[in-house]
Write a structure and sequence with these properties.
single chain; alpha+beta; 2,3-Dihydroxybiphenyl 1,2-Dioxygenase, domain 1; four-stranded mixed β-sheet; 1 helix
Length: 58
């Protein structure tokens, strides 16, 4: 499941919250296909959740 955030600042804020909650991530990564930074983690049901910087309405 993927979501978009409007800025790198929002992505960094998300990382702070995830760290406070003890959620394991690989940190902020770069997706060469989408040409965007993102954060990826698994929810308690093991569903992958991704947050990308940018507008992905297309």
């Amino acid at each position: 499941m993927g979501f978009a955030v409007a800025s790198h600042h929002q992505l960094h804020e998300l990382m702070v919250v995830l760290e406070e909650l003890g959620v394991t991530t690989a940190g902020i990564e770069f997706d060469p296909d989408g040409q965007s930074d993102y954060v990826c983690f698994r929810d308690p049901d093991n569903i992958q959740v991704e947050f990308y910087v940018g507008d992905y309405h297309d």
